Amino acid sequence: MRIERELMRGAGPVTVLRLLKQREMYGYELVQALSQRTDGVLAMGQSTLYPLLYSLEAKGLVTGAVRAAPSGRKRKYYALTAKGRIRLKAEQAQWKRLLGAMASLGLIEPSRSER
Amino acid sequence: MMESRLDALELEHIALRRGLPDSIAQAIGRMVARPGLSESRRVEVLEEMIAHFEDGLAAGRSAEQLLAEFGEADLAASTAAPFPLPRLGDRFVSRFLRDLRYAARRLVASPGFTLIAILSLALGIGATTTVFGLINAIILRRSPIRDVRDVVNVYESTTGFPFNAFSYPDYKDFERGTSQVFSQVAATRYTFAQSMKDGLPARAVGELVTGSYFPLLGIRPEIGRLLGPEDDISPGGHPVVVLDNRYWKRAFGGARSVVGTSIDLNGRAYTIVGVVTPEYEGNIRGLVPDFYAPIMMVNQLNPGNSDDLQSRGNHGLFVKARLRPGVTLATATGAAGGVSAQLKQTLPDNWRGADTFTLVPTRQVILHPELDGVLYPAAGLLFTVVGLVLLVVCANLASFLLARAVDRRKEIAVRLALGATRGRLVSQLLTETLLLGVIGGAGGLGFAAILGKTLTSANLPLPLPITLELGLDLRALVFATVVSVAAGILFGLLPALRASNPHLATTLRDESAGGGGRGRLALRHGLVMAQVAVSLVLLVAAGLFLRSLGSIGAVDPGFGRDPSGLLQLTFPPAKYPKAQRLLAQRALSARIRELPGVVSVGIIDNLPLNLLNESDVEVNAPGVLPPAGSTGFTADVAVVDTGYFGAAGIRILRGRDFLATDADSAPRVIIINEALANKLWPGQEAVGKQLTTSNKPKDRAYEVVGVVATTKIRSIGEDPRTGVYFPLAQANALGVWYLARTTGDAEALAPAMLRTAQAMDPEIIIVEARTMARHLEVIRLPMRLAALVIGALAALAVALSGIGLYGTVRYAVAQRTREVGIRLALGADTRAMVRLLMGGGLRLVVWGSAVGLVIALILARLVSRLLFGVPALDPVTFVAVPLLLVTVAGVAAWLPARRVIRVAPTEALRSEV
Question: Closest partner residue to A46 among B47, B54, B71, by Cβ?
C-alpha cells in the first residue's frame, strides 16, 4: 500500500530526518531503509526522495559529504545537522500531537503510535 | 549569449560511460537536465543518480524495477525510444556503438555545422575520388595480358622520334628476324569504319589485328571465338569480325545469337565470329574499339592511297612481342638490332643512319612512352590540387571544431572530473568526426559518380572517342573510404586533443565567457592562415591556366577564322578508281556549294591541327644547300583543290592559286608557304622556281606557282613550320576534308553537308561532320579543361577559407561584444571599432597570403611546362590573385565585425549574468 503524495509530502521530511538521526546514510541506503523499516509503507518514489534531500540540505537541516562507502565507491553521505535535530524534535512533537488527536477520534490505535 | 550547459544527451552519455543500461542512462539524462539546477549542482546530482542506480543494480534489482520504483512511469516507458541498440556482449563494440549513437545525436543537434561539414567533405572527397578514378582508369589499370612481364612493346626509332609505329612489311621482317628470342610477335592498328545500322550509317572504331595478336595476349572469348592465324592468310579474304564486349551489349543488347550473323562495314558484310571478354579494352587505354578485324582486311576497312600490306611508308602498326622463356630484354634488344642492321643493307631508302628498334616492357607503358612523359606530371598536378582542396576542407572543419570545443569545455571538464580518461574522451570526440568523415565520404562517392558520368559522357572535341571506365571499382571505393577516415581523423584529432586537455578542467570553476586559451587560439589562427595560403596557391594556378587559355585564344591559327563546316569522308576505292574519284569529289564540292549560305568550298587531305595525320616530305631546290647533316628541307605536306585557300581564308601572298588547268596531264605545279619560301630563297622571288621532293618519282621537278601565308600545322604553339601543297588533280587523295565557309550558321551547315554526301552516294564512308570552331577547340581543350577544373577547385577553396575566416573573426569579436558595447557607450567611433575588430582577421590573411605566395612562386616554375604564352611568374596573376583573396577575406571579416557593432550596446548590458 502506498501513501498519497500529499500525505507523503508531510511525512517525508520527518521520516528522513528520523532515519538520519541514527546514522549517516547515502541515497540508496535511505531508499532501502525506508522500504524495509516501514514494510514498504513509506517507500517513497525516489523522484520525491532526492528533491526532498536537496531541499533539506538547502535549508541546512542535513549536510552531504562525499566519502568512500564500504564497497569502496564514492557516495554522498547525508547527516543530520544541529539545526536538523532541533527541527526533528519539533516535528516529532507536532506529529505526536496530530496522531494523539487522530487516536482520540478513533482514526488510529494509540498503542501502535506509542511504540 | 551562448549557453554552454550540459544537455540531456551529454548527461546520458556520461551515465552510459559508467556502465549503466541505456534505459537508466536515458532517464538520468532527462531528470538531471531539467532546468533550475546550476551547472556544478547538476554534476553533483548526476553523480548521485548514477550512484543510486549502481547501488540498485548491485543489490540485484533490474533496471525496469529500479525505474518503476523511481516513480516516473513516463521515463521508464520512453526508454526504448529513438535508437534501439542491441545489447552486445563485446564491451568494445557496444562502447563504440554508444559513441556512435551519441555522435549521431550530437550531429543532429547542430544541423547547420553538420550540413556544412558534410557538404564540404563530400565536395573534397568527391573531387579527390574522381581524380583517383581517372588515375585508376588510366595509370593503375591492371593489364589483361597473360604473363605481361614477358611481353614487350616494340617501336621503330629514328633520330628525334624514338617511338614510331611499324609499317606492315617492317613488322613481317621483324617477326621473321627475331623468332629466336620471341615466341610470338603481333601487331594491331586502329581504324574507322562506317557501319550500317537500321539503314543509317554510323561510325565504328575498329582494331585490325594480326592472327598472332589474341593468342599472344592470352585473351579468351566471351562467346564464339577470337581471331587467330587462320584469319591472317590472304589479303582482303577474311571478312570476319570479333565484337568488343561493350559494343556487343550496346548495339546488340548482349544477344548470344549474334555469332554467325553479320554486320555491314564500309559496304561489305562481315561475319561475327565471337565477342571478346570485358577485361580487354583495346590496345590503348581510353580508346575502346567497337570491333576487331583481321589485319588482312586493312585495305578494305582503312582504304588509303597505297596498299597498307605492301607499303614501307605507312606507319600505323603497334607491335607487341612475347619473350621466349629465359630470354632477357637485353638479348632481345640485341636481336632486334641485328634485324635493323640487315634492313639498312637491303632497304637503304627506308632504313638509314641511326634507325633501329626500341623495346619497352609493356608493363611500363601506359599510353605511349612519349605521352606518358606528360601524363605523370599532369596526374601529379591534378592530384596535388584536389589534395590541397581536401586539406582546406579539413582545416576549415578543424577550426570549426576548435570553436565548438570552447563551447563544450564544461561538458568535457565534467567528464574529466567524473573520471573519464583522456583517451576515452578523444576516441569519443573522434567518433563524431569519423562519422562526419564517413557520411561526407558517402556523399563524395555519389558526387564522384556523377562527376565521372559527366566526364565520360562529355562531348569533347577530340578526333577519337575516349572511353574510360570511371565506374567506381573496388579500388576507388577503398580509396574513398581511406580518404574519408583519414579526413575524419585529420580534422578531428587536433581539436579532440585540445578539447580533452586535462588542464582545461579548471574551466569548471570559470563560468565566465573568456577566450579559449592562447594555445587554442594560435592553432585556429594557424589553420586559417593555412587555408588562405593553400587558396592562394590554387588561385595562382587557376590564374595561370586562365591566362594561358587567353593566350591560346589570341593565337591566330592562320586558317578557318570564318564560320565554316567540316566534313571528313572517304570515297570507297573499289567503287571510285582514281579518275572517277576526282570527278566525284568535284561533284560533291559543287553540291555543297549550293547549300544555303555557303560562300566557298575547298578540299584538303590533311587538315591542319588534326592531331592524327602528320606527314612530311623532303624538299630540295637546285642550287640550294640542305641544312647541315640532312639530305633536304623537311616540309609538311597537304593535297588541296582549287577552292581550299579561298574557303580556309589563307592569303595567297605571291603568284597564283591552283587552277582547273593544273590537271594530271599538265606540267607539275606546287604551292609553298612563306616559311619555306624564306628558307629556300631568302630575299628572292620564289614563284617560278623549281623544286624536287622525296615523293616518287624522286627526280620529278615541280614549278612553284604560288606562295601562301603560313598557318599553324601541328600545334598552336609551334614556330612557323615549312609546308608544301600539291594540287588534288595531280595527286592522289582518298580520305579528305570538305571545308565550306558560310555566311550563315556553321552548326547547321555541318549536318547539311553530311546529308548532301549521303544523298549523293550512301556508300561514301563518312568519318565526321563538325564545325571549324569545334575542330579548333581541340587545341584549346587541355588548357580549357585545366583552367576549368583548377578554377572550380580554387573557387571552392576560396569559399571554404572565406567561411573559415568568417567563423574565426565572428568568434573572436563575439568574445569582445561587451567590451565593444562599453567602448561604444563611451563614445568610440563606429568605423574605428570595425577596423579594430577586422584587424585580427586581416592580419591572418596577410600572413597566409605571404606564405601562399612563396609556395606559389616555387610551384609555378614546376608547372611552367604546362602553360602557354604566360611566364610562370606572370605579374598579372601574382598581383590580381592576392588582391582578389584579400577582397574576399575583407568581406568575410567585415560582416561579423559590423554585426557586433550593431548588437554590442544591448548585449553589453545583458552579457553579465
Answer: B71
The mean pLDDT of A26-55, rounded to a whole number, is 77
Out of B54, B58, B69, whose CB is closest to A46? B69
d(CA B14, CA B436) in angstroms, rounded, equals 22
| Residue A96, all three cell numbers | 505526536
Determine which of B313-327, B402-416, B561-575, B721-735 has the lowest per-residue pLDDT on average: B402-416
Chain B contact present for A48, CB below 8 A: yes
Mutation target for A interface from B43, B70, B74: give the one with most A CBs within 10 A: B70
Instruction: Tell me the chain A residues in contact with residue B58 when contact means C-beta distances shorter than 8 Å.
Output: 71
Contact by Cβ (8 Å): B566, B771: yes
pLDDT score recorded for residue A108: 74
pLDDT for B77 equals 35
Please tell me which of the candidates A26, A43, A54 has its beta carbon nearest to residue B51.
Answer: A26
In this prediction, residue B79 carries a pLDDT of 34
Q: What is the per-residue pLDDT for B910? A: 61
B531 half-sphere exposure, CB direction, 13 A CA radius: 36
Cβ–Cβ < 8 Å for B691, B722? no
| Alpha-carbon gap, residue A108 to B257, rounded angstroms | 102
Find chain A residues with C-beta within 8 A of B59's C-beta.
28, 32
Q: Which residues of B touch A31 (CB under 8 A)?
A: 52, 56, 69
pLDDT at residue B785 in the model: 79
CB atoms within 10 A of CB B141: 17
Q: Do B45 and A71 touch (CB under 8 A)?
A: no
* Residue B301, amino acid: L
Q: What is the CA radius of gyration of chain A?
A: 15
What digits encode the pLDDT tens for the residues B196-213? 766 666 778 899 999 999
Q: Going along A13-114, which residue ranges are E strands?
A: 25-26, 62-68, 74-80
Interface pTM (ipTM) of the complex? Answer: 0.82
Using alpha carbons, select from B409, B434, B433, B412 the residue that is nearest to residue B424. Answer: B412
pLDDT at position B183: 95
Q: Hey, are the CB atoms on A27 and B48 less than 8 Å from each other? A: yes
